[in-house]
Amino acid sequence: MCDFHSILGVAIGDTYEIRHDSSNSHAGMAGKLENKPNRKPVMFEAEASAEKLLTCVAVDDIKSSIIRNYGECPEQLVRKIVAHYQKLKEALTDGSHLESYFAEDKYCDVWNKVIEGGIAVTLPATFRGNLAVSGSAKLDATALTEVGGYLVVYGSAKLDALTKVGGNIAVYGSAKLDAPALKSVDGRTGFAPRVRKN
Length: 198
Hints:
Layout: E1 5-12, E2 15-19, H1 26-30, E3 42-48, H2 50-55, H3 63-66, H4 75-94, H5 108-116, E4 126-127, E5 131-133, E6 138-140, E7 146-147, E8 151-153, E9 156-158, E10 164-165, E11 169-171, E12 176-178, E13 184-185, E14 189-191, E15 196-197
Parallel strand pairs: 4-7, 5-8, 6-9, 7-10, 8-11, 9-12, 10-13, 11-14, 12-15
Antiparallel strand pairs: 1-2, 1-3
């Protein structure tokens, strides 16, 4: 597992796809492969840190350092993987592709990293994944009504319309969570001693 974003490139016959899970566990992604008669899947792990993506000029130039066993990976799959990481680089740079390519729950790690980078995002009313507001990040999501997973705040979060959290809530250090409408938390809540509760 890498420190930010891992995918699994899969070749089954002439079919090429990429798989991702917000846990960034290659083993977890491989465990979800469908068994197809007479076709053995060939898997290629790929991963990159946000720092690596943001400092590279072109993702295509670093493909050999992103894809394990790069020399054995079919060119069609290499192109798919490079295209994925190019979109990821653009998302980390200016928030592109969040509401289209990275809209599924499994990409909540991407949304969290973009928020951490200080880029303004528009969260949907229901965010099905885990939501983390890290470091000096500030999240002002007045339309967000539900977080499906856990909610972790290290920075500052103003969530006026939030009524439900499907997992645990944790607020750390001097972080501030402003969620006056919150009525339901399916998990546990935890606040560090120095936190200001509203």
